[in-house]
Amino acid sequence: MKKFVIPLMIGAIALALYEQTKADKNVFVLVIAFAIFMYGMMQLSVKTPSKNQDKEEEDVQ
Nearest to residue 41, comparing CAs of 14, 10, 20, 19? Predict the structure, then answer.
């Protein structure tokens, strides 16, 4: 999954930066690129454990 998400995010960033250099900026393209980037960040951070995970497990017991 990572092999697909990272290039997708890089492409979205490149598209957004390219769109910023144009004289006629298309807001919809920027919003879609930003949404793709945020979706990719969400997919990459899903497996990051929480800081409070140990505390929550102790509270349950």
Answer: 10
